[in-house]
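Try it yourself: sequence plus 2-acetamido-2-deoxy-beta-D-glucopyranose, in.
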Amino acid sequence: MGDLHIMPGSRHRPHMKKPLWIIVLVLFVCVFLICAYIYPPQTSSGCYVFSSRGCKGFTDWLPPLPAREYTDDEIAARVVIRDILKSPPIVSKNSKVAFMFLSPGSLPFERLWDKFFQGHEGKFSVYVHASKTKPVHVSRYFLNRDIRSEQVVWGKISMVDAERRLLANALQDPDNQQFVLLSDSCVPLYNFDYIYNYLMHTNISFVDCFKDPGPHGNGRYSEHMLPEIEVKDFRKGAQWFSMKRQHAILVMADHLYYSKFRAYCQPGLDGKNCIADEHYLPTFFQMVDPGGIANWSLTHVDWSERKWHPKSYMTQDVTYELLKNITSIDVSVHVTSDEKREVQRWPCSWNGIQKPCQAHIMRDFDSVCCSLVTVFFPLLRTHVVVVGFDCM
Ligand SMILES: *[C@@H]1O[C@H](CO)[C@@H](O)[C@H](O)[C@H]1NC(C)=O
Ligand SMILES: *[C@@H]1O[C@H](CO)[C@@H](O)[C@H](O)[C@H]1NC(C)=O
Ligand SMILES: *[C@@H]1O[C@H](CO)[C@@H](O)[C@H](O)[C@H]1NC(C)=O
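Structure, out:
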């Protein structure tokens, strides 16, 4: 700091008859400094007026202007979030993974999941939110595991409500440490131990999150979400997450950001097609704990056809090669929806090691064609005869 400009040290007693021009000069300098504080210099040439070392030198001398004044609700939300994030994880001796199924009714792959769970009693729990019809269960692991449900409309906040309802129910069991959201068309790609260890030995949550400047991303943002949610924090991602307990509690604690999405992220509102379940959690975590999420989901899904819905796997598609291909993907890919169609690729790293990403659960097995499939699930080391299921 040796080169700081120091005001002249010796102070002379002011003369009573101070020449007018000194007062004018002092006033001029004051006005100049006040103006410079209120309207900070934007161009680099402006910077050199104040300091030969560039913009930094001048603004460093002044107290930083607060970004903006937080509302009461925001201050309250921030202290709660900060304390939840600071609290150390509660280590349970019987840590369990909560598998939470979001389904319209019966689960076409219940028998497959039954096989997956067999022999691992005490290390998992199952929750089913069936939004249309009461499911008929064929597996003992699913019996009496239906939670109170409500109607779910695709794209609406009721989807997020169902996710929160599942989380709330699963959080009631203090042994649940990881919370996996699944659809009725998900199937496991690995055996239980692999998935259990994958989830238990990491301290991040797998929430899909990326920045899409295009119409299906930021194009859905509404300025009504201001001041709490700025467009720079608006994110997109698939809804299928796996979350650690601390993050599940964060979601329960959030009312502020959730209510903004409930009010201003709806299909057809203000001519925008905002899909709450694709934006609420990615944006929320981007704001409160960006380093705590992986930014990709464990649930594989194929969007390469660029349609409204991802690719469905038909009977003839489900081959050993396909499963092998999916389990070898170790880079997560997001494509923006603007005309640039920028492809964002991130290696999927698990505790710093690049590993298969989605390797875990696969979505959109077509339930209509399931009655014909006989598949060898390499990582379950078993043939799963998907015949005679109660296909919907
Ligand atoms: C996760 O743990 C690693 C070390 O085990 C640590 O470096 C990292 O900061 C932790 N990440 C979070 C989000 O807590
Ligand atoms: C996820 O993305 C955010 C930026 O949006 C970044 O800060 C964070 O480190 C990323 N997470 C991981 C695990 O790399
Ligand atoms: C598997 O991956 C290979 C190489 O990328 C590709 O040629 C093949 O078509 C894929 N097979 C399936 C069934 O997806």
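One thing you can check immediately is this: Confidence is low (pLDDT under 50) at residues 1-11, 41-57, 363-392.
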